[in-house]
Amino acid sequence: MSNVLSLTTFLPILGVLLLLFIPKESKGVLRNVTLAVTVVTFIVSLIMLTGFQTNAEFQFVENVPWIAAGPFIMRYNIGIDGISLWLVILTTFMLPIAVLSTYTAVDEKVKEYMICLLLLETGMLGAFISLDLFLFYIFWEVMLIPMYFMIGIWGGKNKIYAAVKFFIYTMVGSLLMLVALVFLYFKGMEAGITDFGLLQFFNLKLDMATQVWLFLAFAFAFAIKVPMFPLHTWLPDAHTEAPTAGSVILAAVLLKMGTYGYVRFAIPLFPEAAHKFAPMIATLAVIGIIYAALVAMVQEDVKKLVAYSSVAHLGFVMLGVFAFNVEGISGGMLQMINHGISTGALFLIVGFIYERRHTRLITDFGGLSKQMPIFATVFMIVTFSSVGLPGTNGFVGEFLILLGAFESQLRWWTIIATSGVILSAVYMLWVFQRVMFGELDNPKNQKLLDLNAREIVIMIPLLIMIFFMGLYPKPFIDKMDPAIKKLVAQVRVASVNAQVMPASDQMKMPTGHQAMPQAPAANTGSEMPAGNAGSNMPAGHSGMETPAVPTAAPVVNPHEAK
Amino acid sequence: MFDNVWLIPLFPLIGFIINGLFGKKIKNEAVIGGIGTLMIFLSFLVSCGILMQMIGLPPEQRVFEKVLFPWIHSGNFKADMAFLVDPLSVIMIMVVTGVGSLIHLYSIGYMHGEEGFYRFFAYLNLFCMSMLLLVLGSNMLVMFIGWEGVGLCSYLLIGYYFHKKSAGDAAKKAFVMNRVGDFGFLIGLFTLYWWFGSNHNIWTVNFMEIKAASHLLPYGGVVTFATLCFFVGATGKSAQIPLFTWLPDAMEGPTPVSALIHAATMVTAGVYMIGRMSFVFVKSPETMMVIAVVGAATAIFAATIGTAQNDIKRVLAYSTVSQLGFMFLAMGVGAFSAGIFHLMTHAFFKACLFLGSGSVIHSMHHALHKVHAHDDAQDMRNMGGLRKAMPITFITFLVSTIAISGIPGFSGFFSKDEILWMAFANPYHGNLNIVLWGIGAIAACFTAFYMFRLVFMTFFGECRINPKAKSYLHESPLVITIPLMVLGTLAAVGGYLGMPKILGMLPNYFEHWLDPVFELANEYGSKYAHHGAHPSHAIEWGLMGLSVVIALVGIAIAFTMYVKNTELPGKFVATFPTLHRVVYNKWYVDELYDYVFVNPCKSFGQFLWKGFDVLVIDGIVNGVANVVMGFSGIFRYLQSGYIYNYAFSMVLGVVVMLGYFIFK
Q1: Counting one residue from A and one from B, how many pairs have CB atoms under 8 Å apart?
Q2: Which pTM value belongs to this model?
Q3: Which of A77, A116, B12, B108 would you label with A134, given CA atoms 20 to 30 Å apart?
Q4: Which residues of chain B have pLDDT under 70?
C-alpha cells in the first residue's frame, strides 16, 4: 500500500500498454478496456481517500533517487496533502466519465484517442503529486502533448489554429517557468539545498528582487493555464474546437493546474512577492469575473459561452486564493472541485445536444424541454449549480471565497466580484431559456431523443456530487483544512516580514505601516487561526525567521486597541 | 414538540421527491395532488403543535434552536443547518403551512388536466420547503438557502408554461432581479460578519448570537452600510422600488402560484428578514428612514398603476406591490409587529383575492373554450355581472376586497390603520411623519378605488363575455371554493387578533405575542427617538375616522365610474390621454431599465468580445505569431541549401570586406 500513489499515477500507462495489443478495429473492446482502466484507477485512488490522515503533512510519500546530472539532482519525490488530495480524486473521478462520453462521439482513430486520454491522466496525476520541482515540470509538459493532439486531430473545423494557439500559449509560460526553476535551483544550491525537493525551498530566504522576478515567471505560466484575464483567449478556441471529452478534461482538471500551481508553488515559494502582487492579481481576477461574464452573455455558441463562464469561475478561485486566509483558500480549493464538476457537466451536456444536432448555435435550438424532459432536468440542475445556488456545490465555494476575500485586504475587490453572481445568473439562465424554453418550432428539433441510459449513467455521479458537496461539504473541508492552515501560516509569517522590513528600514517614520491602511485591518481579522496553526507548524518551518513574529505583534494589533 | 421542528420542512421535501421522481409514472391526479397537499398539511399540524406548546410557555422561554447537522465550517466561519423557533418564526410557519395547505388543495381543482400536473405539485412542495427554511433558519446562511430556494421555485413556477416566450422572459427577469437583491444580502452579511469578527472577535452569522452582541454595534456608520445592503436584498425579494418590475410579470405563472408565492409568502420574505434582524436595522436611523420612504413611495406608485390595468391578475399584482410597500413603511417607522401583522392579514385576503380571480379565470376560460372563442379570459373588459353565476367566489372576493380597502371590522382595517397611525405617531422621523402618513393615506384611497373598480368590472353590471359563452359560466367545484371560504373567513375575522389598544375591546394579542422578539429593537430605537409630546387619543380617533372616510371616498369614486356612470372612464382617458398612457404603461419603468441597464450591458459584452478579445488580445497574439513567421520567412532564404547561394554570399562578403579595407 505504500506506493499507492505511484500505482494510481501509472495505472493509466499500464492501460496504454494493454491498448497497444488490441487491434485498431475492435473499437468496442478499446473503449471498454479504457473505461475499465480508468475505473480501476479511480477505485485505487479511493484508497488514498480512506487512508488519508487529517493533518497537514504530506502523505503516501515516495522519495527515491532519479536523475543525477552534474549539479542537478532530481528525485522521484511524490506525496499528497489535503490540497492535492481532492484534485487527484477529482481527476480519477472525471476520467471514467470522460471516457464514457466518447462511446458514440468518437468513431475515428479510437485507439489513439484512448491512448491520449490515458497519457493525459498520468500527466495530470503526476503534476498534482510531484514534490520535486523538476518532476513537476516534466509532468506539466507531459500533459500538454496528448491535449494538443486531442484538439488537433479530433477537433472541430478550426482545430489546427486552436491546437497551435493552445500549445504556444502554454509553452511560452512553461519555458519562463523552466528558466525560473533553474535559477531558483542555483539560488538554493548557494544555501545548501542539494536537490529539487520542493519542501526545502519553502525555507529558502530570498531577497525581494529575486522573489519578484521568480514569482512573476511562475505566476505568468500559471496565469496562462488558469487562464486569467488577459491571457485567456486560447481557452474559448481550445474549448470550442476540442472534442467533448477533451473539453471536459480541460475544464475539469487542466485549468486547475494553474490555480493549483499558485497554491502549491508560486505562493509558498515566494510569499512576500505574492503579497506584493496580491492586489494586482486580484484586480485581474475581478476583471476576469466581470469581463468573462459580459462576454459569455453575448455568445452565440453554447460551448464558447461555457468556456467564458470558466474564465469567470476561475477568477473567483484566484480571488479566494489571494485572500491568504483559511476561508478564502478553502473556498478557492472547493471552487476548483466544484468547477470541475459543474463545468465538466455543462460540457457533457453541450456534447449531448451536439451529437444529436451537430450544431452548437443557440439560435438552432428552443423548446427542447418538451422533447427531452430528462435532459431538461439535468441541464437545469447543472445550470443552477454553475450559478451557485445554495444547496448545490457552487454556492459553498463561491460563498467562502467571497467571505474570505471580504475579510482580507481585498474588500473592495470582493464587492465588485460579488456582482458577478448577478451576471452569472443572467448568462446561464438566458442560454437555458433560449435552448430549453419557448416553442419547439424547428422541425429538426422535434424528433430529438431524450438522454439514453449511458448518458444518464454519465450524469448521475455528477448530479450526486452537486448536491452532496452543496449540502454536506464538511468532509471535503475537513480534509483540506490542516494543509490550508499550514499554508496560511507560512504565508502570514512572510507577509509580516514584508510589512516589518520597510517599517524598520525607516525608523524615523513612526507611521511607516500606515501607508497601507487596508492591510493591518485585514490581518487582524484573521489573526486568530494563524496563531493556532502556527503552533502546529512542523519543525522544518521554524527556520522561518521566528524573531519576526514578536516584532510584528504591534503591527497586527491596532484594532484590538480601539 | 420544538425538537421536531425539522419535520416541518422535511414533509414538503418528501413530497417534492416523490412527485418529482415518480409523479410522471403515477399519472393519477388525485394521488399526486393528494400527496402534495397532505405533506404540507402535515407540516401545518406540526406547526400547530409548536404553536400550542409555545403558548403554554412563559414569554422568555419562547426561543429554541435546533441544530440538525454542521454545514459549512471553515476557519472562523461556522454555519450549521439549524432552525430557530421563536414567536416570529412560528407566525410565519403558521401562515406558510396554513395558507399553503389551502392553496395546494385549490390547485388540485385548478390545475386539473394540465400537462405536467405532477411537475406543478413537485415545484409547489419544493417552494414550501424553501420558504420554511427561510423563516426557520437560525442563521443568515440557512435563511439564504431558503432565500435563493424560493427564488428558484418562483423561477420554475413562473416559467411553468415554458413554451410561451413571455413566461420564460418573466421567469428569468424574476430570478435576475432577485439576484440583484441577493448581491445586497451577501454584502450585508459579509459586512456584519467582518465587523463583529475583526472588532470583537465574534465570528458569527447566527441571529441569536448577533442579537446577544448587538449592543456592540454603533448607531449608523457601518451598520447603515450593512443594513442598506440587506435592504437591497429585501427590495429584490419583496418587489419594492427599484426592483419591483418582476412581480407584475410573474403573473405569467398559474394563478395558485401567484396566490402562494407572489402574494402570501415569498414576497413577504423581505419584511420578515427586516423583522428578524430588527435589532440591527433599528441601529441605523438612516436606513430606517430609507425603508419608510421607499415603502411609502412603493405603496403609492404601485397603487397608481393598479388603477389603470385591465388584466385582473395584474391589478392584484400591483396591489400586492403596494401592500408590501405598506409593510415596509411599518418596518421603517419601527412598527415591527404592525408590519408583521399586516403581512399576516394580507396573506389571508390577498391569497383569497388571487384564488378568487383564479376561480373567475377558470370559469371564463372554460366557458370561452366551450365555444372556441379566443377572447382573453383574464381581461376584465370581457367580464361583468359574474356575481350571479359565481356566488361563492363573489362573496368571498367581496369580503376580501372590503378587508383590503380598510373598512372597519375586517382584518385589513386593523393592520393598515395601525401602520398609518404609527407612520404618523412614530418617534423616529420627525417632520417626515406627516408626509409618510399622507402618502400612506392617499395610497389607501387608491387601494379602495382600484379594488372596487375590479369588483365592479368583474362581478357587477352587464355581462360582457362573448354571448355564446355566457351560458357556460358556472361556479367552481368545491375543491376550489372551500379554500376560498376559509380564506374569506380569515380575511374577515383575522384582524381581531391584533386590535389597536384604543378600541379597547380585546387586548392586542398579536403585539404581545411578538413583544419578546422586538423588545430589544424598541429599546435601541428609544435611544435616538424624539421624546416629544405623545399624540393624544383624540388625534388617533380622528385619524382613524379619516382613514375610513378615505376608503369610502375611494369606493364611492369607483362606484360612480364603474357602476353608475360607465362612460366616465372613457371620458377620463380622452381628457388626459398622456397621463393614462403613462400610467397604463407602468410609468415606462421597464423600458427605462432596458435602456439604462440591459441594452448597454449587451452591447458592452459585444464590444468586449468582438472588440477586445478578438481584436486586441488575439490581435497581439496572432501579430506576434505573424512577426515570427515573417522573420523566419526571411531567414529561410539564408538556409536555402543551394551551394551557389552560399558561394554567392561568400563572394559578396569578401567583396564588401575588401572594399571596406581598400577605401578606408
Answers
A1: 155
A2: 0.86
A3: A116
A4: 504-505, 531-533
Average model confidence (pLDDT) for chain A? 83
Q: With contacts defined as CB-CB under 8 Å, which chain B residues touch A326? A: 74-76
Sign of the alpha-carbon torsion through A403, A405, A410, A414: negative
Cβ of B149 and A233 within 8 Å? no
State whether A396 and A308 are in the same domain.
yes
Point out the residue among B75, B613, B621 whose CB comes nearest to the CB of A327.
Answer: B75
**Residue of A167, A429, A435, A532 best to disrupt the B interface, most CBs of B under 10 A:** A429
Identify the residue with better confidence: A547 or A117. A117
Instruction: Tell which wins on pLDDT, A370 or A248.
Output: A248
Asked if the model's pLDDT at residue A558 lies above 60, the reply is no
Domains: count for chain A: 2
| Residue that is written with C-alpha cell 542555483 in the block | A186
Task: Give the A window 174-233 contacts with B, CB below 8 Å.
Answer: 230, 233
SS3 call for B664: coil
What's the pLDDT band for A550 if we cut at 50, 70, 90?
Answer: very low
Query: Which range is least confidently modeled, A317-326, A477-486, B587-596?
Result: B587-596
Examine the domain organization and report whether A542 and A421 are in the same domain.
Answer: no
Residue-level pLDDT at A90: 93
Q: Does the structure show a pLDDT above 50 at A537?
A: no
What's the rounded mean pLDDT across residues A49-77?
86
Shortest Cα–Cα distance, A96 to chain B (Å): 26
Please check whether residue A432 lies inside any domain of the structure.
Answer: yes
Which residues pair with residue A390 across a beta bridge? Answer: A392
- What cell does A127 get? 503534476
Contact across the interface for B605 and A295, Cβ inside 8 Å: yes
Written as one string, the DSSP assignment of B28-87 is -HHHHHHHHHHHHHHHHHHHHHHHHHHHTS-GGG--EEEEEEEEEEETTEEEEEEEEESH
The reply to whether A488 falls in a domain is: no
Same domain, yes or no: A538 and A423: no
Rounded Cα gap, residues B252 and B156, in angstroms: 11
pLDDT score at A128: 93
C-beta of residue A558 within 8 angstroms of C-beta of residue A527: no
Check whether residue A367 and residue A296 sit in a common domain.
Answer: yes
- How far apart CA B555 and CA B551 sit, in angstroms, is 6
A542 in any annotated domain: yes
Give chain B's end-to-end CA distance (angstroms, integer). 110
**A155 assigned to some structural domain:** no
Residues A533 and A417 in one domain: no
- Decide which of A472, A494, A529 is a domain's last residue: A472
| Whether A319 and A443 share a structural domain | yes
- Are A400 and B149 within 8 A, CB to CB? no
Q: Tell me: pLDDT of A342 over 90.
A: yes
Q: Residues 310 to 329 of A: which have CB under 8 A from any B CB?
A: 325-327
What's the confidence (pLDDT) of residue B531? 66
Look at the block and give the residue holding cell 408626509.
Answer: B435
Same-domain status, A535 and A441:
no
Are A442 and A526 found together in one domain?
A: no
> Shortest Cα distance from A443 to chain B (angstroms)?
15
Host domain of residue A324? 278-472
Q: Which amino acid is present at B377?
A: A
**Is A362 in the B-facing interface, judged by CB distances under 8 Å?**
no
Which domain-ending residue is among A450, A472, A494? Answer: A472
Q: Which three cell numbers stand for residue B34?
A: 393528494
Per-residue pLDDT reduced to its tens digit, A405-446: 998 888 889 999 998 888 888 888 888 888 888 888 888 888
Task: Report ipTM (2 d.p.).
Answer: 0.86
Q: Is the dihedral of CA B587, B592, B593, B599 positive or negative?
A: positive
DSSP-derived pairing of the beta strands B64-74 and B77-85: antiparallel
